[in-house]
Structure formats: structure tokens, C-alpha cells
């Protein structure tokens, strides 16, 4: 699933931003940070 979001980040960053925001409004935090950490570690 984070691979899908990684692709979205490359192609449609504004859509991904809305996805993160809607989760944060729902009280779900940390998705953005988890993805960022996953992508950083997978590039190495």
C-alpha cells in the first residue's frame, strides 16, 4: 500500500496531500511520517 502512495506522491502529490489531510482530520496521525520513513529506507 505504501508503494501505491509512493507512486501517487510522484505523479499526483496534491491528491496524496488530500489523503493525508483527511486521515489527520479523522484523528489518524503518523501515516505521512511512516511513508516518509519507509521511502527513505527503501531508497538506500
From TrEMBL:
This is CEBOS protein.
Amino acid at each position: 500500500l505504501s508503494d501505491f502512495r509512493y507512486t501517487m506522491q510522484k505523479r499526483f502529490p496534491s491528491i496524496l496531500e488530500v489523503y493525508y489531510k483527511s486521515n489527520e482530520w479523522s484523528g489518524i496521525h503518523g501515516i505521512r511520517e511512516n511513508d516518509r520513513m519507509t521511502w527513505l529506507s527503501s531508497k538506500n
